[in-house]
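Quick start: read one record
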Amino acid sequence: MIGTQVAITPLLEIKDPSFNPDKCAEYELMLELGVERFRFFVLESKTKHVLCLEDYSIGGLPMENKWVVWLKQLYEEHPFLNSNLWKNVSVCFNTPSFTLIPDVFFRKEYANSYLGLVQGEVPEGEHLLHHEVRKLGARNVFMVEKEIWEWFLTTYTQHVPHFIHQTSALIEGTLSLASVEKARTLLTCYFEDDFVTLTVAKADKLLFCNKFGYKSASDMGYFVMFVLDSLGLAQENVLCNIYGETTPYSEDYQLLQKFLPYLQLGKNPTGFLLKEAFEDLPEHRYFSLYNVYFATQPPKK
C-alpha cells in the first residue's frame, strides 16, 4: 500500500497470501469511484477467489480535475494497479445523477435528453455513458467527468474497460437476493457519507431504485417510509438488508429497527470465495463493489 499523503488516505488493504501481481493476466480488476472514495478488488477468474481489496479516502485537492490528478498520483506509486495485462477491467462510477430507460425506448442519440430530465443540461467537461442492465431489459444512463473516462481508456488499452453506474451494481445484487426471497419484498439500503440508495425488488422485478441525500437519521427514515408507502408495501411484508458505511449501533440502523421488523445486516454475495484474510471484514461493507463483477458479466448462453 502506498504511504499516507495529504490527499490520499489508505483505509484498508487486504491481500490473500496467494495473490501474485505478476499474474494479472489471470485476474479481473473491479474499481469503484465515489465523491471522495476509491476502492477496488482483484478476482481470480477461474476460482472466483477474491485475492485483494483496497480502499482509499481522498481530500485536500482542488475540485477542478481532482480525480484525474489523484488517480495519476496513486497509479504512479501503486505496485500493480497500472498493469495493462488484466484479463478484464470494470469501472463503477458513484455519481448522483442517473436514469433507467427501457431497452424498447432507448436511442443512443437521445441519451442527453434522457438524463436532462433529471439533471438538466449536461455541463461542459462531462461525458454521458450508458450501460445495459440485463436483468431489467433497460439501460442505465449516467454522467461522468470526460477527462476521467478518457484517462481510464488510455490507461487500460489491452481490453476496453466496462463502465457502469453504482446503481447497476446495487440493482444486480438486490435482484439476485430477491429471486430467492419468496416470502417478502426485499429492500436494500446502501449507506455512504450523507447518502442512502434504496433499492426495492420482488422476485425478479425491480420496483424502485434511487439515491437520497440526507443530514439526519429522521430524514433518512422519512425517505424509507415514503418509498414503502408509495409502493403500497406494509412494513411487516418487507425484508430490509443494510449495507455500506454503517453499523448496528448507528443512529440510522437504530431508527430503522423501530419500524422495520425484518431488518438485518447484509452478507457477502454468493459466488465468491473469500478466505481467512477477509474473515474480519464486515460482510455488509462492500456490497456495491462486489456486485460490480456480477453486473458486468456477459449473459449466460
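The chain has two domains: 1-177+267-301, 178-265.
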